[in-house]
Amino acid sequence: MIPYCLLKPIVFALDPETAHETAIAGMRTLGRAGLAPAYRPHADKPVTVMGLDFPNRIGLAAGLDKNGEAIDALAAWGFGSLEIGTVTPRPQPGNPKPRLFRLPAAKGIINRMGFNNHGVDALLANVKAAKYRGILGINIGKNFDTPIEKAADDYLIGLEKVYAHAGYVTVNISSPNTKNLRQLQGESELDALLGALKAKQTELADRHGRYVPITLKIAPDLDDAQIANIADAVRRHRFDALIATNTTLSRDGVENLPHGQETGGLSGLPVFEKSTAVLRAFVQALAGELPVIAAGGVVDGAKAKAKLDAGAALVQVYSGLIYRGPELVKECVAATRAG
Fold first, then answer.
1. 205 pLDDT above the threshold of 90
2. Could you give all domains of the chain from N- to C-terminal order, each with its CATH number?
3. What is the 3-state secondary structure (H, E, C) of 212-248?
């Protein structure tokens, strides 16, 4: 395998979305040709979270492989788990291009992709074709043209379709790039949505004879009252975990950088402090009643360890991979081994 440090100048010479699509296509080809190395997660003490046995604490966050096209190649990087999506019931193109921007000086990324994906049926075809048998999370969302008052219908469709093929399912209500989506984090909207999803999960568990955990992915742009309301809701509806956090609308620290004022969600190192503060607040609010999975700003092993120190049960990475490549996974596993 060519070291990422040698490939990075080529990758960064391309438009960000072109680079992403090229990388996914290359990994898809490797996987389908059987040329991707067998799945061997980096050695660690296994940890049980949501009733699932994770071989290590470092997982791939949703967004890198929206359609599940590169599962086998990504598995070879040594993750303890993979999360694919966000996927919607119907295919959709996402927002107009350009919609993905690198901020190298800050190790950040801004995106306004808008849940571009091939639809849940295409994702499931890719999942069925993959050889990977590790823990696979599937992240579900709503179509952009589904009215917000009908959003639960899309999430219920997604949950029903992916249930039999997922190790766990993540409900994404926190992307800033689908109009009004974060409205679902409001107290009454969230209560109704979580209640409907929990009832569907119970029904599907009976039907399939298998319990698949559900997690909720939330935004970092929350005040104390919103954190308290969300913590109360996931506790009452007996969700299995919370993922903190998605991207931020804040531009603190990047406002004067090229592309720093682009519309969309900011990820990578600039979101680390904000996402970790929200993580810590949810850990305190939930008091061990359900685990919190960390995401946001993990660009090295020290940042991964800091997430565990803040109370996270697991850590997910994505934007850091753009700057560090597969070596980041190995480094983060080593850094969190004692956690």
1. yes
2. 4-336 (3.20.20.70)
3. CCEEEEECCCCCHHHHHHHHHHHHHCCCCEEEECCCE
